[in-house]
Amino acid sequence: MKTALPVLCTLLLGACTSTASVGYSPYLEPIPGSITYGGQPRTKLTKAPIGSTFSHQFRDPFGRQVHETYMIAPDRSLLLVRRRYRDLFGFDDD
């Protein structure tokens, strides 16, 4: 019984963390129109402070307006941190 309790706790904790992360990814994948789609840009943002953010807007192939937020990483690459969609009628996804 003493060995079964830690095993049971481990299984329950593992189930909680695995079900909470289904459908969620901390890293967004770039889509066509994203600045980082097809890889990082050739030029680096050398004057922008590390950790600063900026936004980028474009339309996806379905006609929705996409608002993306990028952050400048310590190696001066761009990290996509947020994406919001606005449909054809102007309603947000939030």
TrEMBL record:
The keyword Signal applies. Residues 1-20 form the signal peptide. The lineage of its organism: Bacteria, Pseudomonadati, Pseudomonadota, Alphaproteobacteria, Hyphomicrobiales. Keywords: Signal. This is Transmembrane protein.
